[in-house]
């Protein structure tokens, strides 16, 4: 996907539903990320949803709940083609992420690609170290401070910006902060640093116009508002047409 | 709900996801119907989704897969407050539907409201015959022909029009047929017949503008495009804003 | 179990939980019946619960949702050792029940005991017609009227009395009716008729004292208050000890 | 598949496991049938397994539990591309099967292909009547007697022979009967009758050598021993190599 | 709940069953804790059970399996209104617990309250730091030794005494130890220390009389015997009434 | 099992299917290990599969995803009778494994054997420290280097060799490496070291002939190719008999 040097539009899945994942994979996304942190997705749900996405040629990624090597290896064995790992604050954490994603000698991933080999074929073992994407989330003040050492970690494919937590840990509101000029400047700085290191810069969003603006800002991968939000936008259109008061905005899991 | 003589906007749920059902119940619908016919919802899913809807005061209905008294009684025991039964073609079928929804002596519903009593309280047994809604779907040429005898069945609360199958069985396309003048005339005629019999007339829809127009046409209950369609509308808005070709239209289960 | 001419105490399971089924199988019951009619148990739940009960030597039975031969055969293949079929009103229905439970030439059960053979061993095919129990529920005025022809059906093992629906269809309250002298007389008459035909008479209950009294009345199998009720009794003891107002009585699924 | 006039090797799935279904779809079968009659597969399992098979280009079929139009339509909406219906005894039943598989005016299938349209694309509605396979199982003495009228039903694609039940209902053992000369003669006669009517003849098997022989006998589709049996063959090879007594033969669901 | 300065009776749920959770929420408890440590409850079960409890106004809490910030945040996002964290041995661990439960700047909880916001409404983000309860379990000799430093951790709401492990690590039997005078003295000392620090003292129990005595001892929250035990008490009553030997005592998960 | 000083043949389960687990438990294995690392098995699957295995007298073991004490304790509470822990590199890790498996004073296992006590009976608490097996996996260069200190850890029952990762971390291919003379020498050396320390040496395999050779080499426990591989062997036999090209080899999860 990204290695073919195209930019990617990434769907974000928070709802544990294999059918919705399959439906989402027909909407026009290049990749879909299963959010196991703020989404309601467990390992069992993720496994079923990875199968559902595999009915199409959309690239399946997983945002893990944390930097837990066993959990990372388990979703890779289940067929995830990349990991977005939250809350990476320093180079040691980024190196641990890379190690969990790479077979020896490049890393310490244990061997046993139970479903991944079905999905990706007999060449999986040979190609996995080159094709599995490892993204470190930059979403804390610490992570931003240590950005250069993180980007210098060999084998890391890129950084993924979590604008809400990044805003929160810089004293801004997590919902409105991502559009504050101060935060936008930080976001641009992360993108530029990634480029200097020859790495991908990926960006999260929770609103359609923000998604468009981030795409225009040149990120390599931009995430769209999640499944729950898209559903809410559709429901909002309906309620407006019916002259009804809309429901509360759907929570945007996965900031 | 309907007995309070207000008109109702009914959400239509085809995706087996308790979280999505809960989210949907916060969007502003008066009722939500779990579609066990064309939706992907099984009894197990329905049970979990009925619990999810019960976190709000939205009225939970079920469209069963068929006129199977055991299946009807089982979702009533699980807490459904009404049944929309597909493919009712004559008075005998409508009477069987009513019987499955009513305790003796009004009907033959077997006693054992396992979850319904938790949901609706200790008075459930005494009130169930008056509060459980029984809707017969009119969606075939036979059903239309026998409309008067169906509407004359004691205990039936109303008819629910399935415009796609009704179009299909009258030689029209199931997607475009519901907007054909000939079909609209039939639809209005059903509404008028229901009124003459003092019964509710409820109407299905799969597009927002059609939903609005049906509401304006005065049906007692109008169903909105289903969850899957609402999700697709939101995704379409995104893809349009991103300048991308939209995915294929989401299938509108539950015609 | 019953063939060893002992009388049986039957647990009644309404809650879809394999662990609770396993726990129940350690409480001292001779048999446990999974209630797929008024209980919240689906085929998937039943399969897992049948496995859970098979960790002990308690006899697993199923009360099906209806007289549906395919559903009966499917739970038999999953390992149920007997069927309690609701709402049997005449000999033809009883004969259909027997046919669904017996391999040719005794009946029309289709061959394929996928899990049953694991559970019961290689001799299953040869022994199944003799060991699978088929109970017809007598719980309507029609069923009572046709009791003799039902009991005369070859291959039927016995009748199972549903006192709530039997009361309801005779104009009594389904909760208090089973203790009305008129209903008790009918219940005794069913027991006596079964004996005359050399068949088992089994009896349902939803309260502990009623269960004890029915046992003393000499039924071959007496069902205890269901899992949900037993839980409620325990919770009631707690609330009483704490000086709190108890919760509403747990609904007694499976009358 | 069959319409391309090639013969097909059909895998048979009895174990409710989406992963095993996906693994099976990589073994070299042309089609895989989910057995909802004697297999342990529910609607929920079937839905997940249909998604799993859709990750490959293997054709997904379903053997339903019975001739229940609502259940047939529901698995078609979930993406099954054909139905094998058990216990068809006469032309009326065969016609009901065809009707459940065909949209008007060819049949009475209700419109709402919720997942099928995702799987098969936007042309689904137009093509479904031509591509959905409808197989009537011939597995009783009645079915055999009425074979010609069954084969004459318009829209039926073929017959599927269930040799175990066919043996059982003709007084033979369901396990050894299918290889009895008398039964083999009947089986050949069914194949020849199908050819005379220009319809497919499909054949079940539960052992590898029987499968090979049936293929050589010229059936249009031959089913392999089911997943559970294949697993048992592999385990048997292991136990033999280890010098251990093998486990009991795995039950061959789906005769 | 507790902030309204009433004392609370807490139900304890070990069985992974959404229906049983809903039934339990109607029994008269102020709060129900899902035990993800010794109970059989996974994240998937917990999510469904949190929805079930949300049909009532009972406060849902979770006892996590360990001090894993990602797991804590994930159940909070799913709607848990408080955390009981096992095996807290020192102030650093207690501080990590508090951090996982509080948004910046009070802690390091990542933002994305996917279901919590549905459950608790639009004000969730603003109120969460004040309403989410954080209880540290004191259940080891180390924890007891460091009690004062634990109670001094800012943001900690209280301590929750695990009398079985506390007994076990002090050389007493985990079942009988909690009633040993030496242990009761330690338990009282913990309660008194909590009061000196202005924090809540909560107490576990596995028997009804012990629960009553702990309530009388003045704890702010007392946990009742778990769901499995309550079921066992009810079953024991039945078996006693029937003159049968009771089953083995139900294990009291969640000491 | 092993304590009775017999050698054990261990089945290896990677597919999350309670039925397949039950079927496997009838094949002739002494023990079955649920692989939660490279297998697709979650806690929920493991719980159901432990119940399924408990229908037989096969010993249930679990290979956990990592050295996570909370996860180890949770599967022990669910009824696992032993733990195989991956990636043990030194004595401290081995000691942490032992501690998680032993009640005080031998270790730090928290008390609450919710299902284990049902399965193993009232004596569980007293016997658990003696009967629960704790195996440390030796599968890295570090683990091999520190083998003697690992074997010296009190309470450790044995070592379990992971030949694929051991090969990988020594520069060999994970699939062919286990049969390389250099690796075989290392494997024998581990076995001999275990014997010197009076501990069990257990060995993994993924091919039948390798399994046989490892048995002949005298290991105390030898693991057979996993469920998925056994299924693949059976399917391969079929495809060969049919003259078809076999599918790709099934991935051997659990190296």
Automatic annotation (TrEMBL), chains A, B, C, D, E, F:
InterPro entries: Aldolase/citrate-lyase_domain (IPR005000), HpcH-HpaI_aldolase (IPR050251), Pyrv/PenolPyrv_kinase-like_dom (IPR015813), Pyrv_kinase-like_dom_sf (IPR040442)
HpcH/HpaI aldolase/citrate lyase domain mapped to chain residues: 12-199
Entry keywords, A to Z: Lyase, Metal-binding
KW Lyase (keyword) present: yes
Domain of life: Bacteria
Family: Belongs to the HpcH/HpaI aldolase family.
Name of this protein: Aldolase/citrate lyase family protein
């Amino acid at each position: 996907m990204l290695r073919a040097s195209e930019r990617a539009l990434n769907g974000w899945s928070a709802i544990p539903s294999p059918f919705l994942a399959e439906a989402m994979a027909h909407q026009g996304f290049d990749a879909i990320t299963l959010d196991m942190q703020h989404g309601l997705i467990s390992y069992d749900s993720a496994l079923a949803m990875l199968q559902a996405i595999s009915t199409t040629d959309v690239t399946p990624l997983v945002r893990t709940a944390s930097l837990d090597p066993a959990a990372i290896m388990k979703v890779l064995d289940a067929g995830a083609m990349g990991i977005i790992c939250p809350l990476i604050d320093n180079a040691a954490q980024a190196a641990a992420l890379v190690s969990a994603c790479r077979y020896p000698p490049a890393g310490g991933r244990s061997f046993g690609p139970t479903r991944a080999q079905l999905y990706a074929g007999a060449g999986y073992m040979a190609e996995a170290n080159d094709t599995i994407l490892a993204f470190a989330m930059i979403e804390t003040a610490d992570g931003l401070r240590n950005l250069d050492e993180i980007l210098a970690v060999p084998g890391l494919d890129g950084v993924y910006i979590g604008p809400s937590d990044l805003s929160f840990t810089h004293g801004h509101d997590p919902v409105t902060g991502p559009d504050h000029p101060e935060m936008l400047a930080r976001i641009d700085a992360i993108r530029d640093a990634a480029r200097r290191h020859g790495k991908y810069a990926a960006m999260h969003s929770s609103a359609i116009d923000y998604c468009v603006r981030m795409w225009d800002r040149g990120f390599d991968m931009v995430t769209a508002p999640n499944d729950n939000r898209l559903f809410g936008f559709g429901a909002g259109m309906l309620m407006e047409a019916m002259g009804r008061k809309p429901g509360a905005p759907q929570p945007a899991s996965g900031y």
